Amino acid sequence: MKAIRRFTVRTVLPESIRPLARLATNLRWSWHRPTRELFAGLSPELWEESHHDPIALLGSISREKLEELAADSGVVERIQSAAADLDRYLSQPRWYQGLGEDAPACIAYFSPEFGITEVLPQYSGGLGILAGDHLKAASDLGVPLIGVGLLYQAGYFKQSLSRDAWQQETYPVLDPDGLPLTLLRQHSKGGVPGKPVQISLPLPNGRTLHAHVWRADVGRVPLLLLDSNVPANDDAARGITDRLYGGGGDHRLQQELLLGMGGVKALRVYQQLTGTPAPEVFHTNEGHAGFLGIERIQEAMADPNEPLTWDEALAAGRASTVFTTHTPVPAGIDRFETVQIKHFFEAGLAPAVPTEKILELGRENYDGGNPSVFNMAVMGLRLAQRANGVAKLHGVVSREMFAGLWPGFDHSEIPITSVTNGVHVPTWVDPRIAMLAREQFGSEAEALGRWDLAYNVSDEDVWAMRRQLRASLVEDVRRRLRASWKKRGAADAELGWTDTVLDPDVLTIGFARRVPTYKRLTLMLRDPKRLKALLLDPQHPIQLVIAGKSHPADDAGKKMIQDLVRFTDDPAVRHRIVFLPNYDIAMARTLFPGCDVWLNNPLRPLEACGTSGMKAAINGSLNLSVLDGWWDEMYDGENGWAIPTANNGASSEERDDIEAAALYELLETQVAPRFYGSTVSDGAGAAGPSQPRPEAVPTHWVSMIKHTLAHLGPAVSAERMLQDYVNTLYRPAAVSGRRAAAESFKEAKGLAAWTSKVRAAWPQLMVEHVDSVGVSEEPQIGDTLQVNAYVALHNLTPDDVSVEVAYGRAEESDELEEVTVAELGALENLGNGRHLFSGSVVINRSGSFGYTVRVFPKHSALASKAELGLIVNA
């Protein structure tokens, strides 16, 4: 018999152990080892059966057992101690509380997905894991962040394989009552619980989209998740938050409207109910949440006390908004037809805002763009005064990709900076590594993040730890592989071979990530014979553990998985190469520490950052990667290997052949020999049961491990990332936002009026003439060049503009390289709107020298000279 309805009944705990409920619902347990150990100690068997989910654990403990625990003074004392520790963590000042008054009182962080724990499966890949690590690091540092996202009824999807190795997707429905979530409610009255908070958005054809708001506590950080599966909705509206990145155009658009506009509404209600300060900074993590800017403009324009105009509201909102782009390719950006956007906004989503103004924000009205398309990233950039990519190289790529928004500017001047991603160390470092650090150096050294102490650990201890981690991975792989084959239809009698898959003494290489084509899952298969020889080498064998999900609509990615799995099914190599389906946080916790080398071979420069290699590095794994994403800036020759990149002129086939050959070469001649040092073999042939053993301690390899830990550990941490965001983006955005809003939005109003004046006048601006004096017929280093620029400003004044000379080495094409800029001062009013600007330049180089003059708008409220996208070149 099947139930017609299923729901989760929460456990009622005896009074003495009641703090367990709060410990279970605060997701700090997902990275706080002592709290996890407390839950595991209540019932080790049930802890394993519950897949390390504290709420599921408490729900599965019998009432009699709970009473027994409540009567155990030792258990009660441990629970009370853990609860007191959580209280201290939540209340005591941390790094952020030591900053100055300019630090924002509250920051809203919007993301379409959050990967915090496998218990709350609301993530698909790197973007969500990054968002989860962002919240965790903010909690540890005391950053007053509020996360905003959606609660997907089926999360992303669970992956399995068919007998012929084709990816299968299933979508188990989640019960929010069984998750570490609390439904946001209005205040209770007379002991009666308040009604659930309900957010509403008007939809076309007189329909309405309603959503409840669930709260997850990520340490000190509240995460608000909007859920459309509520009784007030019709069936179509209930399904809006059905699954992550599911559905077609209108479905995805409604998800993003709910995330952005509904998310701001949820924040406002949360402020009222909790007394939390209003966010001073709004951070949009990728373009999916961009509509939050429209909702904020709607608020400002509909303010009954002091409504702002469109231009004023736009200026005020931009000042306090940060936009982070994560994609290095236009195809990765959500784009909608402008008629779709118009259809939804004409339903009254933002009644105070002119729909045409909204359409212009996302319109690709630049060279190479499609004006009939609404681009979410373009809207995100136009709604934010500050923007960033997620690695230095990605910043370069982003400035090139969005150059159309700033015509006439050099790519280096486009106002998109970069903050390189990081990973939350307590989540991703293996507890045994942390324990080794505590045993050798004390808990204080661990708390201070003394990565450099890795050099003080003996080579023998490091190597023993690495083998222990590798052995744990081998054990986990065997269990998962057997389960995978059973789902593919294999009988137990066929699966004896899975008990001997992998070897804890063989060089182990990991590769796990999403499977779009540009990540090249199957590059390793370019030459199957050569890969097979590497796997079965009698002296220096390697073994590979591979995992990853392809988007359900990406048949090319699924074909890659199928091709790889068919190779791993070969009885000759299946003991040395495995594919594990359903890659998630739980699998990653064993995979990253257990691999000696982490492989990454995307098409450069299509990897925005690629944080999986960072997670491996903090566990002492070495990276073997194309110089892309974070590896491009942090590879130093001693923390791993760089896979050479083929020249851009090569075809895609040639490029793959060249780079695959380079990968094989590195494995054969550098990686494997260095891991093994001198080996002893039993003399078996390549296809036989060879038992290679590395030397007692391969000292060069261990030195690379120590170097990786000491140098990459602090560099790749999410704490470093959060501090970068706070200092380079959040604090300046908060200052700008306060200034814009001060004295009844005086600065925002002034900036809006000034911007309108400048935009109207700009087409008439002209650099009429430039001359220079002070240089002889044979210029020498040290000579001073006086540059005079005659500029027609018409009805603008010299205070409205910045006139600068840019100079440097001049190429044969007259392009300037190694450019230096200097501002020219207003020297004389020549009448009729004409002005003379002048300044001096010292010639500081030999060889070809050149200069040019440019004019930009100038205002104290602009964050960069390129902000308005206006420039006049001489």
UniProtKB/TrEMBL annotation:
Keywords, sorted A to Z: Allosteric enzyme, Pyridoxal phosphate
Catalytic activity: [(1->4)-alpha-D-glucosyl](n) + phosphate = [(1->4)-alpha-D-glucosyl](n-1) + alpha-D-glucose 1-phosphate
Matches recorded under Pfam families: DUF3417 (PF11897), Phosphorylase (PF00343)
GO molecular function ontology, one term from the record: pyridoxal phosphate binding
Top-rank taxon, per record: Bacteria
Modified residues (N6-(pyridoxal phosphate)lysine): K615
UniProt GO BP: carbohydrate metabolic process
InterPro entries registered for this protein in UniProt: Agluc_phsphrylas (IPR011834), Glyco_trans_35 (IPR000811), Glycogen/Maltodextrin_Phosph (IPR052182), Glycogen_phosphorylase_DUF3417 (IPR024517)
Domain named DUF3417: residues: 13-120
Family: Belongs to the glycogen phosphorylase family.
PANTHER family: GLYCOGEN PHOSPHORYLASE
Protein name: Alpha-glucan family phosphorylase
Annotated organism of origin: Arthrobacter cavernae
Taxon lineage: Bacteria, Bacillati, Actinomycetota, Actinomycetes, Micrococcales
Gene: glgP
